[in-house]
């Protein structure tokens, strides 16, 4: 005669089996990946000193983020800590080193998402906030909204005691040179009666390289993603790219993956890149590497969308994928030592 265990019997057996219990949180994997933008980054055009400066800053950001995770901090804390280092460096197109708009100012965008709850916060077109990723977090945690833009976002920032700076703090000579070159090119094209959009699309990729982002996995098994940028050189009319758009430039859900993107924002918005990658992971059972490759190389590349992504799942699997010549990037996890790279290797 067959014997069936009652539900209560099964539950008591499960409770008594230590091998089936969740691993102690100290044994769970930690992981972080960062990027500092993707584009035509060529070794032949980079001096050894400049390359070293980029590597050192990426390393500092990676170590800071990983240190937060090791101390038991949340994935959100780690993402913010890493991004703050990159925002404060003039090397990257975010915060301090943001590109110039057509009118010679700086307009910054950032977003953040918590994979545990799918809470999210974003800011777009802010001019006076020193670390836009911090403001994105406040929007997420201290407002009933997801995205705030322009003057309203700054009013909210002031009301929450966020550090405000003069827009000129973001001035740098190398970005000014990029603006001068971009404007000359745009004005030449406009004189030939090509429309503004065609002229902007014709701008070489370096005019927007340097967006920064991070994804992280903490001891509790939660993932998070964040992205911060100055956008595109010579942008105009309040143009906003993908970086502050949840689903396009940033996405995180413990059930699928965390993504931070960099690249030609108009394509990343239209192809909903970050959310598409995570949907493939969740509904098609793809690995993060397969899903990122399918979207970046299979979907975006054929239509001319240049850029890359960093992707991480809640088991600690990571993918750093791009269809450009290079992407400033770094990764570290419990099983893997820190790795910094710039070119295709
Ligand atoms: N995605 C950013 C934007 O379009 C720029 C970049 O990542 O290079 O604003």
Written description of the protein model:
The chain is built from ten helices and twelve strands. β9 (about 305-310) and β10 form a beta hairpin. α2 packs antiparallel against α3 and α9 packs across α10. The protein has one domain (about 25-345): 4-Layer Sandwich (Glutamine Phosphoribosylpyrophosphate, subunit 1, domain 1), CATH 3.60.20. It has an eight-stranded mixed β-sheet. A four-stranded antiparallel β-sheet has the order 7-8-9-10. The chain is of the alpha+beta class and about 350 residues long. Aspartic acid binds near residues 231, 249, 262 and 265. Pfam families: Asparaginase_2. One of its GO terms (molecular function) is hydrolase activity, acting on carbon-nitrogen (but not peptide) bonds, in linear amides. It comes from Microbulbifer yueqingensis.
Outline of the structure:
The protein is α+β, with helices and mostly antiparallel strands.
Q: What is the secondary structure topology, with strand pairs?
A:
Layout: H1 7-16, E1 31-39, H2 48-70, H3 75-87, E2 108-114, E3 119-126, H4 132-142, E4 147-149, H5 150-159, H6 173-191, H7 196-201, E5 212-217, E6 223-229, E7 250-252, E8 258-263, H8 265-270, H9 273-284, H10 288-303, E9 307-312, E10 318-322, E11 326-333, E12 336-343
Helix pairs in contact: 2-3, 9-10
The structure holds aspartic acid.
């Amino acid at each position: 005669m067959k014997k069936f265990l009652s539900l209560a019997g099964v539950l008591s057996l499960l409770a008594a089996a230590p091998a089936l219990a969740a691993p102690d949180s100290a044994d769970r994997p930690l992981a972080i990946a960062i990027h500092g933008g993707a584009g035509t980054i060529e070794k032949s055009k980079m001096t050894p000193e400049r390359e070293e400066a980029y590597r050192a800053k990426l390393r500092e950001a990676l170590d800071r983020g990983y240190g937060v995770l090791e101390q038991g901090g949340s994935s959100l804390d780690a993402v913010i800590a890493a991004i703050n280092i990159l925002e404060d460096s003039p090397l990257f197109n975010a915060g301090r080193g943001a590109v110039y708009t057509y009118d010679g100012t700086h307009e910054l965008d950032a977003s953040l998402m918590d994979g545990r709850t799918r809470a999210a916060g974003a800011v777009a077109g802010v001019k006076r906030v020193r670390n836009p990723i911090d403001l994105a977090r406040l929007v997420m945690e201290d407002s009933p909204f997801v995205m705030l833009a322009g003057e309203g976002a700054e009013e909210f920032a002031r009301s929450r005691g966020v550090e405000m700076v003069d827009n000129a703090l973001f001035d740098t000579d190398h970005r000014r040179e990029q603006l001068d070159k971009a404007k000359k090119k745009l004005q030449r094209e406009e004189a030939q009666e090509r429309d503004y959009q065609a002229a902007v699309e014709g701008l070489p990729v370096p005019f927007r390289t340097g967006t920064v982002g991070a994804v992280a996995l903490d001891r509790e098994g939660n993932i998070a993603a964040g992205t911060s940028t100055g956008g595109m050189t010579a942008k105009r009319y309040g143009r906003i790219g993908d970086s502050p758009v949840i689903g396009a430039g940033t996405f995180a859900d413990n059930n699928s993956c965390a993504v931070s993107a960099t690249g030609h924002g108009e394509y990343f918005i239209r192809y909903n890149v970050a959310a598409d990658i995570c949907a493939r992971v969740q509904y098609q059972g793809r690995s993060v590497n397969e899903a990122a490759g399918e979207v970046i190389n299979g979907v975006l590349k054929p239509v001319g969308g240049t850029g890359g992504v960093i992707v991480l799942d809640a088991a600690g699997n990571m993918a750093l994928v791009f269809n450009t010549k290079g992407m400033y990037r770094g990764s570290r996890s419990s099983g893997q030592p820190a790795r910094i790279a710039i070119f295709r290797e």
